[in-house]
Amino acid sequence: MSTAKVVTILHPSSAVNNIVNDASGNVAVGNDLTVTGALVPSSSFKRNRIINGNMLIDQRGSATTPATSSYTYTTDRWAYEGSVASKASVGQNYNSITPPAGFSKYLGAASSSAYSVTSTDYFNIQQPIEGLNIFDLAWGTASAKTVTLSFWVYSSLTGTFGGSLRNGAANYSYPFSYTISSANTWTYTTITVAGPTAGTWPTDNSKALTVIFSLGMGSTYSGTAGAWAATNYLSATGAVSVVGTNGATFYITGVQLEVGTKATPYEMQIYSDQLAQCQRYYYVANTNSGGNLLYGSLWIGSQAFYLAPYPVTMRTRPSCTYTYSTGSFTADYGTASQAQLYTNSVSTNGVSLSAFAASAEL
Questions:
Q1: Where in the chain is the domain with CATH 2.60.120.260?
Q2: How far is CA 48 from CA 137, 268, 348, 356, in A?
């Protein structure tokens, strides 16, 4: 049996401080610790490469039942993907269960029928990650870093569940499995993955990595757990199918992906910082709280130009949708920093918006 070890460090003042290293590798400092040299962490800050892993931000604000072959964002940065229509409902705090301690939100999914997946079916919840947020992992090289995925999960079903880490090109993947032993109970899970030395992993603002949790997967997209493969696997072979049981539920929160072989406690962030991270990919504005959504100036006659700055610079020039209160716009010449809207038909009442949304999702 391993026992705790005590390491004695001599302070410059000759005082002695004890640092206890327990059997699990954790270190406890009994007194104040002063570091005069550089403190080098085992993983870079910020640790978590997942955005909104605690499911706190939900700008879209509603549960959804996606259409056939849809790829639909739900809670910010999390998308549902299904090959057949209306087999699951997905949304923030869906079904209103109690989250695990330390969390107030989760992403929930419920099966809409007892559906038997075919070989080419796929149902999952996933988050794509851009290359700028994982380039330091050096994946695809001999220096590839090991990562650990951790999360809290809860289901009405028990057994071996599956998921995958997959590159942006969807041709290199790592199926993983995990076990839920007790139904309707939050279970903390960690999965350590040795970084791949092959495959293509972008280092720019395009999709580089997708973290996937399966809700039901056909054999075409299922592979052996625990090994990298040069193909598009979305889950591990033999994993539980949530969509296979009518009314079955699946809930997840506290998702963290970090460098190293050990999972650390979930990295909580200031709400405004987490919101800004989400707004790099999606931003919605409306007049519910009053104020103007945009400002503009009249050029000549009926021509006008309006600006609507985004709160943060988006990943790329977004696609925008608009809800008009008055008039309409002729064109959008926007950038990643602001919407630039032009009209050549300003009426007496001008042009006004009640809401608009900008999407630069991966």
A1: 70-277
A2: 13, 9, 51, 30
Reported as a single tens digit per residue, the pLDDT across 328-346 is 888 889 999 998 888 887 6
Average pLDDT, the chain: 88
In 3D, which of 117, 76, 115, 86 has the Cα closest to residue 235?
Answer: 117
SS (H, E, C) 250-315: EEEEEEEEEECCCCCCCCCCCHHHHHHHHHCCEEEEECCCCCCCCEEEECCCCCEEEEEECCCCCC
Closest CA to 318 of 283, 293, 272: 283
Smallest CA-to-CA distance from 352 within 324, 329, 332, 317 is with 324
Assigned architecture for domain 70-277: Sandwich (2.60)
Q: H or E segment at 180?
A: strand 173-180
